[in-house]
TrEMBL record:
It comes from the Eukaryota. One of its GO terms (biological process) is autophagy. InterPro entries: C9orf72 (IPR027819). It holds the Pfam family C9orf72-like. This is Uncharacterized protein. GO terms for cellular component: autophagosome; endosome. The lineage of its organism: Eukaryota, Metazoa, Cnidaria, Anthozoa, Hexacorallia. PROSITE patterns: DENN_C9ORF72 (PS51835). GO terms for molecular function: guanyl-nucleotide exchange factor activity.
């Protein structure tokens, strides 16, 4: 019983420096998430949701934050739940320099999504961890997304570098600060998806890089 009480204490911990944990699929609902763990994007571009997760050596995969688009809630919940639970499996023995970002791109036909994940060394209140920033794309948009792949990877690595700096400066405010940069990136990708990738990207479209 003491063990159960301890788990309940961990799962209910919702202060600004901790993260909501998903101990079981059955209780994962957006309605259970506080604003510190979920945001609704005004513009989500080609993405269903953007998910920040990490691996806890005791509790397993944990959701740190989800930025979701204005879509079907139930399908988004299923997709986010899957991504949080699967992305970091196989990364437990990751031995890479802290500044290295690894990428994964995988198709999940059963859920009708593609997941573009970036694995990196993040930080929480317990110290350094293995984190993932994952972009969920509808499978129907995959072919349109492929031409943007190289650009997305370049820009997301810049975003992650910014997130790591924010975490090092002030862990408590890092996510709210990072949330200001993410929409700029999404707006850039959405614009390029609509207009196509030009031979050279205008200075105005490079503002995300300059502001980071």
């Amino acid at each position: 019983m003491a063990g159960i009480s301890k788990l309940e204490e961990v799962f209910s911990d919702d202060d600004s420096s901790s993260f909501w944990t998903t101990p079981a699929d059955d209780i994962f609902r957006f309605s259970n998430l506080s604003p510190s763990h979920m945001s609704v994007l005004k513009e989500s571009g080609p993405f269903v949701a953007v998910v920040l997760s990490c691996w806890d050596n005791v509790l397993g995969p944990r959701l740190q934050h989800v930025w979701r688009g204005n879509g079907d809630t139930e399908s988004q919940e299923k997709s986010v739940k899957y991504v949080v639970g699967r992305t970091l499996h196989g990364e437990l023995l990751r031995d890479a320099p802290e500044n290295v970002v690894d990428t994964k791109l995988y198709v999940v036909k059963d859920y009708g999504i593609v997941c573009h994940s970036f694995i990196f060394s993040g930080c929480d209140k317990y110290g350094i961890n293995i984190s993932a920033l994952s972009f969920i794309i509808p499978l129907s948009e995959f072919q349109n997304y492929l031409p943007l792949l190289e650009l997305v990877e370049e820009r997301v690595k810049i975003l992650i570098a910014k997130l790591r700096v924010l975490q090092a400066k002030n862990l408590t405010s890092s996510l709210s600060a990072f949330s200001k940069y993410l929409p700029r990136f999404i707006q850039t990708i959405a614009s390029l998806k609509t207009a196509g990738i030009p031979d050279s990207i205008p200075v105005s479209m490079q503002s995300i890089h300059n502001n980071l």
